[in-house]
């Protein structure tokens, strides 16, 4: 066959057109919007793996767009458990939960999700590494292998986090293609909660094993969510595109792009100029300025996270619980909420959340603001005005520095001499080379049971005791009981007693207010915000 | 000349070692990467596992020896956040930073030097006063303030340019202007004062008295002599090409080396910080070396001194 230059060019042109035309046709048919969301940070760990990215910012990009668990959360409601990849579940006994998988769920690579993927998700290769035989509460996993070096070797912190999430998981069994059983070593009433928690989401076995390295997988995980990863540039942006085979229906958006804009002013300016559709992490003091423009509004509110002031019992003055109690009574929490949060958050009933359900203690409350009582306690403690250090980070938490300044003045009203010491990072906050006093913290509840918060944070293996700030023998005994008891009325009694110890008798901390997060957007975008960092762009939450 | 270069090289190596050692010690003593990267709420077991995996639980001197041993084997370490080689992470960001700093350098030199010369040649005139007012303003306004003002005017109010990001060449305009204005102001002031000093010298008066045209006096006698302090300042600017846009990159969400440095320091991503510092130190040292060589080219007396010293 003889070809001339002209015929070659014509042929090439036709071939090019044939490639372009279908794409053009697809482009024409897909009228869904693409949106851009400005965030302060996409992920701290530079990965998209739930077991490595343990942060609030991770929750925002993961849920509900990417990762899904067997038991889901009612993100736009009370955050309670809802069917997700499992259509139903039941208790077989105190140690076993059986779940029926939803059929027809497709991963981002087109594979159908089966029991085999669930078993693999909770297996050694992906989750527990060689730590599976570690005794409860101890981590034996150390390795010379660095993350991302070769193969699918897990970074050591992944099994460590997994073990914390599932301290006594014995095994996961595939009963048939669509039925799995989770079997615990010990009785545990929180298994359903743990299945719904951050870190128990399901991955594609083939997606994981086919990735060249663990890091490759962790930057483009194959999951079941309504959007899949198209492009991830750590510290810069994350682009998700619609997963049109999503089991919950066709996603309403064609593309979601999260861009990192570290400066608040940059996020707000980008929103005002139309470059961004959403601007996240808006400080409360910026809300009036944004809403002064009638085209925009700021949504958001309380999240599953409480701000605390934490005490160090080893300080000679704070060793006396009367002094710590005086601290708790000197705080006008509502004044902080009204002045620094524009009234957009609340003072909760201690370290608990209503989504605990039957474990929520409705008649509990934070210590009453009572300066007379605080002064009486200080007199009884024979406090002479000795300085108490307050190690402080510069706005690690929203409004942190201004809250600290307000607190110090409130404490001064009661007669407490609290001295702020600015620190750069958490290492300096925990440093034991000089005397610690009080500090800031926040506590979350990853699942709907007090074990997820008061035990995990203040119990014998919680951070506060691990850093040597506080301990209480009765509290430690009760923590074990709360974790292992299956007697629900007794568990509630135990939880109440723990609150009495930690918030009244021998204060470990005092709750200041519930935390809140705010997102600005154009008013004409019909979208409902979740009471969480998570941003829900599933079918049903976009457009009118 | 060789002795001169050898001495300069030795001094450069010592400088680099000191910079890296200082950074190594300060970074490790002021923050725990495990706590910063894993977050304060990560389980203590995960923190411990992270420390063990990255050798952070070894004594400081062991880590130091290991680090320098690796450097001498061409390994600048790996990012604890990213898992990839630090040098790869840093070099990936260099083009983005140069996309700002090179045009900004051109603005600095292209505006700053002529403005300074013009102001000096028209000393005490209205033009001189205006140039100096602009120079003082440009010099004193912090870059983040100027950046925000430019965003408010040209992005928010006028809608002509984007407020941040790196999607197109239009996104570079405001950060380049922000970077360029401050440097141009500095150069204008230095050039003006250098020119004024030279213009007051007897040899300038002699040349004028001999009837040499004023333009030739300026071109052949004043400018080369005034160039030495100006070249020194430009040398500093060249030295800061790689990491000289930290604030501006943050204000404009520009993903360059500056932003990488901020994130790496905040997270104590040790290998990345040290890699950037090493590169910055090397760039600065090389720039200084070039400036030293230029001194010789600009002023034959210096060249003669070095040659004499080399014998």
Any overview of this molecule?
The complex is a heterodimer of chains A (544) and B (311). Chain A has helices at 5-29, 56-62, 115-121, 124-128, 157-165, 191-196, 205-210, 214-219, 264-273, 287-291, 321-329, 333-340, 371-380, 400-414, 426-430, 454-458, 463-466, 473-484, 488-505, and strands at 33-39, 71-73, 81-83, 86-93, 96-101, 169-176, 179-184, 227-233, 237-242, 253-260, 278-279, 296-311, 388-393, 418-423, 438-444, 509-522. In chain A, 50% of the residues are buried. With 544 residues, chain A is α+β, with helices and mostly antiparallel strands. Mean pLDDT of chain A is 89; it is low at 1-27 and 132-151. In chain A, 32% of the residues lie in helices and 21% in strands. Chain A folds into 2 domains: 34-254, 3-Layer(aba) Sandwich (D-Maltodextrin-Binding Protein, domain 2), CATH 3.40.190.10; 303-516, Dipeptide-binding Protein, domain 3. In chain A, a hairpin with a 2-residue loop joins β4 and β5 (96-101). With 311 residues, chain B is an all-alpha fold. Chain B folds into 2 domains: 2-72, no CATH class; 89-310, MetI-like fold (Orthogonal Bundle). Chain B is 78% helix and 0% strand. Chain B is built from 14 helices and no strands. Chain B is flat and about 85 Å long. The relative contact order of chain B is 0.14. At the A-B interface, α5, α9, α15 and β15 of A face α2, α3, α7 and α12 of B.
């Amino acid at each position: 066959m003889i070809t001339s230059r002209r015929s070659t060019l014509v042929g090439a042109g036709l071939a090019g057109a044939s490639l372009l035309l279908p794409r053009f046709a697809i482009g024409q048919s897909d009228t869904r919007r693409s949106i851009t969301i400005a965030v302060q940070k996409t992920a701290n760990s530079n990965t998209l793996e739930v077991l490595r990215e343990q942060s609030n910012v991770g929750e925002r990009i993961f849920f509900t767009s990417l990762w899904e668990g067997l038991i889901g959360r009612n993100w736009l409601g009370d955050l309670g458990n809802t069917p997700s990849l499992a259509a139903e579940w039941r208790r077989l006994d105190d140690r076993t939960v059986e779940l029926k998988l939803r059929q027809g769920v497709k991963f981002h690579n087109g594979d159908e999700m089966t029991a085999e993927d669930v078993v693999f998700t909770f297996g050694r290769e992906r989750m527990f590494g060689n730590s599976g035989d570690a005794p409860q509460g101890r981590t034996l996993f150390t390795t010379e292998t660095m993350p991302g070096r070769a193969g699918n070797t897990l970074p050591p912190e992944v099994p460590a986090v997994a073990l914390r999430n599932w301290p006594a998981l014995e095994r996961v069994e595939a009963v048939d293609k669509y039925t799995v059983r989770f079997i615990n070593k010990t009785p545990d009433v929180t298994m359903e909660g743990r299945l719904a928690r951050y870190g128990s989401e399901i991955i594609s076995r083939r997606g994981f094993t086919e990735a060249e390295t663990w890091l490759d997988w962790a930057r483009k995980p194959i999951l079941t969510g309504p959007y899949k990863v198209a492009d991830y540039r750590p510290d810069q942006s994350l682009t998700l595109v619609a997963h049109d085979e999503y089991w919950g229906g066709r996603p309403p958006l064609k593309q979601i792009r999260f861009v990192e804009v570290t400066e608040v002013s940059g996020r707000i300016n980008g929103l005002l100029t139309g470059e961004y559709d959403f601007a996240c992490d808006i400080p409360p003091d910026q809300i009036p300025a944004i809403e002064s423009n009638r085209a925009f509004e700021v949504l958001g509110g309380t999240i599953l996270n409480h701000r605390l002031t934490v005490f160090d019992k080893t300080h000679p003055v704070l060793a006396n619980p009367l002094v710590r109690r005086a601290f708790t009574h000197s705080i006008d929490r509502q004044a902080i909420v009204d002045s620094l949060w524009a009234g957009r958050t609340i003072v909760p009933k201690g370290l608990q959340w209503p989504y605990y359900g039957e474990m929520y203690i409705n008649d509990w409350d934070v210590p009453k603001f009572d300066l007379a009582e605080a002064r009486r306690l200080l007199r009884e403690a024979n406090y002479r005005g000795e300085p108490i250090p307050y190690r402080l980070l510069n706005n690690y938490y929203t409004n942190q520095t201004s809250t600290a300044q307000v607190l110090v003045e409130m404490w001064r009203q009661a007669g407490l001499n609290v001295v702020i010491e600015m620190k750069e990072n958490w290492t300096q906050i925990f440093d034991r080379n000089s005397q610690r006093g009080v500090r800031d913290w926040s506590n979350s509840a990853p699942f709907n049971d007090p074990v997820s918060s008061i035990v995990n944070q203040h119990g014998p293996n919680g951070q506060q005791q691990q850093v040597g700030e506080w301990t209480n023998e009765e509290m430690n005994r009760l923590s074990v009981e709360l974790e292992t008891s299956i007697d629900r009325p007794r568990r509630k009694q135990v939880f109440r007693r723990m609150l009495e110890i930690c918030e009244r008798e021998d204060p470990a901390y005092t709750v200041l207010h519930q935390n809140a997060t705010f997102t600005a957007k154009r008013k004409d975008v019909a979208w409902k915000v979740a009471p969480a960092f998570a941003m829900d762009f599933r079918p049903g939450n976009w457009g009118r | 000349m060789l002795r001169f270069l050898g001495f300069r090289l030795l001094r450069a190596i010592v400088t680099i070692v000191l910079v890296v050692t200082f950074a190594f010690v300060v970074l490790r003593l002021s923050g725990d990467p495990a706590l910063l990267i894993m977050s304060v709420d990560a389980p203590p077991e995960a923190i411990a596992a992270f420390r063990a995996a990255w050798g952070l639980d070894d004594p400081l001197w062991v880590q130091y020896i290991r680090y320098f041993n690796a450097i001498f084997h061409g390994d600048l370490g790996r990012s604890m956040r990213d898992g990839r080689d630090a040098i790869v992470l840093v070099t990936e960001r260099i083009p983005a930073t140069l996309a700002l700093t090179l045009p900004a350098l051109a603005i600095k030199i292209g505006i700053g030097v002529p403005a300074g010369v013009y102001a000096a040649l028209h000393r005490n005139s209205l033009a001189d006063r205006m140039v100096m007012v602009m120079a003082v303003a440009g010099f004193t306004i912090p870059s983040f303030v100027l950046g925000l003002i430019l965003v408010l005017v040209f992005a928010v109010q006028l809608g002509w340019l984007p407020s941040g990001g790196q999607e197109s060449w239009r996104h570079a305009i405001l950060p380049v202007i922000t970077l360029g204005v401050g440097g141009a102001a500095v150069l204008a002031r230095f050039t003006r004062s250098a020119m004024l000093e030279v213009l007051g010298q007897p040899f300038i008066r002699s040349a004028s008295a001999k009837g040499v045209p004023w333009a030739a006096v300026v071109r052949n006698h004043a400018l080369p002599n005034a160039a030495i302090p100006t070249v020194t300042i430009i040398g500093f600017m060249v030295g800061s090409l790689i990491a000289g846009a930290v604030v501006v990159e943050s204000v404009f969400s520009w993903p360059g080396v500056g932003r990488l440095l901020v994130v790496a320091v905040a997270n104590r991503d040790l290998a990345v910080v040290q890699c950037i510092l090493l590169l910055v130190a090397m760039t600065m040292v090389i720039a200084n070396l070039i400036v030293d060589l230029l001194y010789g080219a600009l002023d034959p007396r210096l060249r003669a001194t070095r040659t004499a010293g080399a014998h």
